[in-house]
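Recap quiz, item 2
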Amino acid sequence: MSHADTIPVRVVAVEQVTPQIKHFRLAAVDGSRLPAFSGGSHIIVVMNDVDRVHRNPYSLLGVPAQLETYEIAVRRMEQSRGGSHFMHDSVSVGSTLEIAHPVNLFGLSKIGRKHILIAGGVGITPILGQMEDLHQDGVPYEIHYSVRAPEHAAFLSRLQQRAADRLKVYYDSSGHAIDFDGLLSTQPLGTHFYVCGPAGMIEVVLAKARTWGWPESHIHWEQFSAPPAGEAFDVHLAKSRLDVHVVPDQSLLESIEAAGVEVPYLCRGGVCGFCRTDVLELDGELIHNDHYLSDEERASGRVIMPCVSRARCKKLVLDL
Amino acid sequence: MNVAFKPDETFRDDFTFRNTPEAIRRFPLPFPEDKYMYSVNIEAHRPGPHGSVVEFAIDVDEHYVAECRERALVLKEDPMRFQALPHMMSAQWDCLELIMESLARDYPQHFTLDRQGSQWAWTNRPLGIQQSFTFGDPATLPQQPLEYITRQVQGDWVVMDQREGDLWAEAGMVTTQADWSLNFDIGMSFKEWHGPVPLAHEMGVFDRALKYLLGLRLNEPVRRLNWTMTVNPRLDTSPEMYPKWGTDRASVTPENVADKVHLRVELQGLWRLPRSNGIVFSVRGYLISMRELATIPKWAKRVHRVLRELHPALVDYKGLTRYRDTVVEYLAPFDDGSPTSSGTAPE
Amino acid sequence: MLVTGIKSKPVYTPLAPDLSGRYHLMVGHGVGREPLLRVLRDLRTAAPESGARTRVLFVGSPDEHSASDEVFRSAGAADVRLFGREDELLTDFQDVLTSSVMGTRLYVAGPESFMGLVMRLARQFNLNKDEVRAEECGAAARRVYCMHCQTATENVTTNIVQCKDCNRWLLVRDHYSSRLAAYMGVMVDAEAPGERPEVKEVFR
């Protein structure tokens, strides 16, 4: 459930597709076929940087039937903890990386009767994978893609070729915005909504969906966010008998991993619940940044999601 | 493992099924200690000891050809033992790939798979099958993909869709079941189809199992063992056929118990599927008669104690009521009361 | 003996308004009228503006019909449709589902056999447990599916019943399939032919 067999890959193509987004094509170092995957899947890319290891999730945007290479797209984050900068600045054709097997936390509902896919900026990446699945199944769908300006629209020709008039593109620069109220108020039963984009866009969609009476089971979302930074703090791992120092721009999970201790994970983004860890002792407060724990669990101070959460404390002991 | 197949063995009518001494020794005893109660008992499905039933991802043994023939007979009489809801086609192809790849990799003497893009060529020497087809195009196979390939592998296969925080059994080939019905259960959620199992719900077993399975990852399959008992080496003990096999249960006597009553162990495997993101659940049944079991002294003692102390609700649910005592009496002379080593190995 | 008292029997709860929904579709049969009226009134109290978005489909006896239209409307339903027969209601229900939009909540009240058919249709439109509430009332008679000949026998009130097609005596189990909208029936005397428990009325 953690760091099982990774696949060594080599970068076989790099392309700057928008001012901020680079497209990478990866092939297995041993030339073998890569594992098949479902639309919406992501891979964890392991990057050996100068002073630390980055493990970042990136969505697979390729055609599932084509398994000679994987395709990912990385947006250069202004405030990066190093992963996106590493990909943009230190990775070129011939570079080698390690990747984990695909994981899907953003899959299509197989029994959905219609699918509305919403992408904001680089959030188009998992939508591309989902589009390929929908194309194959022949189920009704729409894609609504919002970007700042035309030069920031990535993979437009690929989208247009597959989705044709199911695709609508919205440019902030022209003042066009997705009419979420219109979309949410008029869908037949069995429609599913998928949104991947900035936190603000996701919040708006979730709030409006609630107003229009959609049950949560029909709204699917994925957010690309780096674990929030914070003050440095120290943590003691009881079972491993290790003291770990967590620096401001490394997550608790990353610091624990750097100390050689494995923690189960799936999403590394505070959503899936897999890295849930018991807190044995706390003198201070936990800073919960996840979307998984209940209010009671957070208030209890007894559990933490190390992938995104931190602490401000004199003492913190974890059951690891 | 280069075993000779016994193609004419039968699992009905004259019941000529027997285990060779090698098959007896590799039998997957499900009791690591002298008593039994439910647990989630899942472990990683990694390659096990050479010659064991878990050496390979999917086990092919001396009964392979006979079991495939038996499956074909069941399906001829009752085609509804294979069903797949319409949205499960991609999962069917995932299963076909999993099974073909496993068999060809682990038993190259019997199976060959040649992939050229989406043009695949499959050879199954024990069954005399050669098939070229286009992966992803159902029209190029004589049956739906899941039916096609499960007719060539031992054990039952149930395919689940993952959605709404739950697992739904929505396709399967089920001809060797211990008294449950695909036709009735298809479309049910995880806890619904486990509804009939006593005690386990109160113990939270299914909550934990479901949570675990929802996070099952590609390339990291898991396995567990389940067990019951069957009178006669009959693989098809379905509810559908109950009128046929029901009388078996009342037919056990002290004279025939050794050869009639079989321990039936299910080796269950669970794999995450790549294109559908579903999960496939394999249920592979192994049968051993009490006489065959008793040739392994430790196992005779172990099974004697487990059956003697078994919780009444489990005796009932596993259908052992009519003959449990007769089996216990048969095994008693093999049990001198001495301690048994923990673990399931023959010694 | 065969096991009964198992956990896959569906659980029903008294109907209450689901305020997270925007459109409220209510389907009832016979004595299901009372729970529907109750939830309509509760809905009107909690969310007065919701009335315009409620619809009732109801099938009952002629007596039950006579006052029903007015009773439902005065409880707050904007649209009321009455049917003399179950199959007529189900046909209309399917049309209603085809034109309904996301945000709809379904409330069902009546005997279980009727509700099973309603909920099976609802599932085809991908309405899931978050969108459907059901309260059982009226006859507890079961639809029983014979595992051996795949036929359903209606209105079973006894612990064992003879399959209407193959004539085997079936034990009526608690294992329920929403897809088939029926309970499992397995041959009760398969192990000892002729040995059957006494027939008892148990599902009233």
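Chain C has two domains: 23-136, 142-187.
The radius of gyration of chain C is 19 Å.
End of item.
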